[in-house]
Design a protein that fits this description.
Oligomer: single chain
Distance between the termini: 46 Å
Shape: globular
Strand content: 15-25%
Number of helices: 13
Number of strands: 11
CATH class: Alpha Beta
């Protein structure tokens, strides 16, 4: 039976065959650089971001609520809570997740599992949140190498806690599983990023968490902190080696990045990200595009989204479609052309 993660692009493909490239669906609210319990070697973002501290010009709770209101008025369906750090450590997360649900929108929370105790899991479930949890290894040693947890806990105990939190979340969410038109729709996901360290463990990770969650396996992106850590993570392998892509094809229920049935990235084509200081980014997963299309304090989401969509459409027309812009061979060309292209708008 086919399985789909609720509120993700394929879910909307299933619900409506008429989703257009320029339909606005997703607003990603990114969180402060401080507070992340891990220093993952694979992090897409520049490795100096974590050193930045709280800035008083960061968006307030009320400003973030207004962005959610604006996204709702545009027809948005989902608010993504993702991080430059673990979003659940931020004081605004809980009230904004609730506010999103009250607006009849779906919160998607990306978490490394550190904050997912039973109380938090139930809070997320009560507010109809979809929870996507990152785990790259079941082995404490490998987990410690890749995630670099800041906790002083003994690695095996820390790893056991994270795995236990993920297992508990999947179990508590079991009664939210639904079936529509022969498709199983779930509200939790486990996401693993494949590299040389864990390439022989992907099948085991998928099987460990069972069939009531969605398993996503992504290739490592040659971006941000991962560039510096590439020799540790990949040895001398180039990005997206063939045997890794084959494992992803066989194991990942998404087939890789979260795309529509047409293979395009829904988060990219149909959404926009807002950084802690209010600046827009064309993609939530890398800081390279941050600030290139203005700030939410000056420019509306609608104007920024339309500008972003024109830019990306021009890029895809020149270089062809791809399931993940950040992982494509032409991403640096896209970033370098942003400023020049924006002069036309």
């Amino acid at each position: 039976m086919e399985k789909i993660l609720n509120a993700t692009p394929k879910y909307f493909s299933l619900k409506s065959k008429n989703v257009k490239n320029n339909d606005f669906l997703y607003l990603a609210l990114l969180y402060q650089y401080i507070g992340c319990p891990h220093e993952c070697l694979k992090c897409f973002n520049d490795d100096d971001l974590s050193k930045k501290s709280f800035n008083p010009v960061y968006l307030s709770l009320q400003e973030r609520k207004l962005l959610i209101d604006e996204a709702k008025n545009m027809g948005g369906k989902v608010i993504i809570f993702a991080g430059l750090a673990e979003p659940l450590t931020h004081m605004h997360s809980a009230p904004l997740i609730k506010y999103t649900a009250e607006k009849d929108m779906i919160p998607i929370v990306y978490s490394n599992g550190f904050e997912l105790d039973t109380s938090m899991i139930n809070y997320l479930k009560d507010n109809n949140a979809v929870v996507a949890m990152s785990l790259d290894s079941l082995d404490p040693y490998k987990f410690g190498i890749m995630a670099k947890p800041k906790s002083k806990m003994y690695f095996p105990d820390y790893c056991k806690k994270i795995i236990g939190n993920i297992e508990n979340c999947i179990d508590i969410y079991k009664d939210t599983v639904k079936y529509e038109n022969g498709v199983k729709i779930v509200n939790t996901a486990v996401i693993s990023t494949i590299c040389k360290i864990n390439e022989d463990e992907i099948v085991k990770i998928k099987n460990h968490f069972g069939d009531d969650t969605y398993f996503i396996c992504n290739s490592l992106a040659y971006e941000g902190g991962a560039i510096k850590n590439w020799p540790i993570l990949m040895n001398n392998l180039n990005p997206s080696p063939e045997h890794h892509m084959q494992i992803i094809k066989e194991c990942s229920e998404s087939g890789g990045p979260l795309t529509f049935f047409n293979g395009k990235c829904g988060y990219s084509n149909n959404g926009i990200a807002v950084y802690p200081d209010g600046t827009y980014a064309t993609c939530a997963y890398t800081s390279k595009t941050n600030g290139k299309i203005g700030s939410a304090k000056i420019t509306t989401i609608k104007d920024a989204f339309l500008k972003k969509h024109k830019i990306e459409s021009a890029h895809y027309e020149q270089f062809g479609d791809c399931p993940c812009l950040v992982r494509s061979n032409n991403f640096d060309k896209y970033v370098k052309s942003l400023v020049e292209i924006l002069k036309c708008f």
